């Protein structure tokens, strides 16, 4: 039998799971996506059913193998990527005990205050490199223990979303350093579970999965999973990475001086660092990189392209129908229309805080706002204002990274928003930095596949694999004529939030 020629990346996203089959040059052979809903029992809560993740995984893996016509024996390895921070609780038999509380859930403010008081704010940041945040996993564990004690008493395993797929594929309880960095339980500088924090919070380390580096082989496809998916039993599965760490690999941000921005449901700016670089104010996050002995500095805004998705789903039915008839992407159409509106969207500003906000303001009570709305404004203006507001939120984060002296010379772009020429130019103008799209643009799935290739010996190292696979595509450079206008609106954007901070708190208590 010849050398295996293929790799699979499985990316468990918020709106769906995407599985991509690549050859070793990084070319896409087959791709499949299966969607599932977010469950919102109350305002600010967000859950998903892990069984739907597994169903989506089975469906998409089976499709990419069957549609490609390849022999599953030629798949060298599988990498996993996924939404971070979600809590998956299993009983002693490996059965799911409740819906996963996912990354954008904001119910744990009291538990985060308890964690901060118990550990100490400075000590918590020194160990985990981050403050206690409502999106992170530790607060969710405490919330279930407090509000659902009978259920918690039955729990024997705590997993992150992608690691639940690993359990179903391989029958092992394992994780890796990049995804675990977002739990408030990992000693990030030492890349291992923090015994001190686990003891202080009363969390049994036996409940947590075994720790690995992202490129490590963590398990092998079981006979049962092989029957369901079409994979060959015994195919290696590597640690993989959290979605953003995987996207970093998939865009080539694996060496110092490189950064990327992704505009998916959330918005992320992510910079590679060869040393631990922590913001003592906790405004942005420091995590372990998927690259061994490296770390990352990143921001996360909770509703980036998700803001545009909200607008389209609720207010653009005619555009959706027109796009379907024309065989076009509705987002391509509405962003083309937004280009008809000038910089500043005719004096309309949007705060993209539909799910509260994380970086850099750490305010779960913040909410979305159209500021300056008048009878003259059209949907084109509103779409442009949303797009600009999302980029202002990224600039707010980038200013912190620059304050920390995080090195980067240009920003690579990924995520659905990165496909928009208008959005890319806004990024360049507002962030005052060249913005480069990367080919192929498969972000997390490609990053997971590259990690699988490194772990199984297909590639020598993560940087060399990225160098051989990735290439720069289009570059957007700052428009010096547009920048002064953006600067004025950005300053007003920040002032609007500052003036509304106390009102957001009052609104949350009504």
Which descriptors would you attach to this protein?
five-stranded mixed sheet, 24 strands, globular, alpha+beta, 510 residues, 18 helices, seven-stranded mixed sheet, single chain
Tell me the radius of gyration.
22 Å
Q: Proportion of β residues? A: 15-25%
Strand order of the largest sheet: 18-19-17-16-22-23-24
Give the low-pLDDT segments.
Answer: none
Q: Helicity range of the residues?
A: 40-55%
By helix and strand content, what is the structural category?
Answer: alpha+beta
Report the span from N to C terminus: 68 Å
Query: How would a textbook summarize the main sheet?
Result: 7 strands, mixed
Write down how many β-strands occur, each being a DSSP E stretch of 2 or more residues: 24
Mean model confidence by pLDDT? 95
Describe the global form.
globular
Q: Given the structure, what is the number of helices?
A: 18
